[in-house]
Amino acid sequence: MIGYTCVGTNDLEKAVHFYGELLSVLNAKIFFKSDRGVGWGVSADKPMFSVMKPFDGQAATIGNGSMVAIAAADPEQVQLLHAKALALGAKDEGAPGARGGQFYGAYFRDLDGNKLAVFCMSAN
């Protein structure tokens, strides 16, 4: 149902480095690149993640209550992505762990303050 997601940035170069490194853990490749942003994906038939400078030229701001969730294969990949994000300068918003039922997730804020989750559905 979701075709792509987009978060805003005020420093495209830093954001592209951050997400390029982070999403390489998922074997994501750049699907598009422009002077305003970059989008990554794992295949043309799966949702894409992008980071963009706002179209209106105003400063990018974070959305209160907005969050993008990145699907991981298993709890180990959740842990790896969360640790990679923090190593790249992200702020911890919730360490990896079970969050009820089969949901296993972790949370962080990127360099611009956008909130992201990394999760998997696990039998653990």
Extended strand count: 8
CATH class reads Alpha Beta
Oligomer: single chain
- Largest sheet at a glance? 4 strands, mixed
The assigned CATH architecture is Roll
Features:
2,3-Dihydroxybiphenyl 1,2-Dioxygenase, domain 1; 37% strand; alpha/beta; 124 residues
Concise account of the structure shown:
With 124 residues, this protein is of the alpha/beta class.
Task: Write up this protein.
This protein has 124 residues and is α/β, with parallel strands linked by helices. The protein has 2 helices and 8 strands, in the order βαββββαβββ. The protein has a single domain (4-54, 62-121), classed as 2,3-Dihydroxybiphenyl 1,2-Dioxygenase, domain 1. The mean pLDDT is 95. The longest helix has 13 residues, at 12-24. The two termini are 27 Å apart. Strands 1-4-3-2 form a 4-stranded mixed β-sheet, with helices on one face. A 4-stranded mixed β-sheet has the order 5-8-7-6, with helices on one face. A hairpin with a 5-residue loop joins strand 7 and strand 8 (115-121). Helix content is 21%, strand content 37%. The protein is globular.
Outline the secondary-structure elements.
Blueprint: E1 4-8, H1 12-24, E2 29-33, E3 37-41, E4 48-52, E5 68-71, H2 75-87, E6 91-98, E7 103-109, E8 115-121
Parallel strand pairs: 1-4, 5-8
Antiparallel strand pairs: 2-3, 3-4, 6-7, 7-8
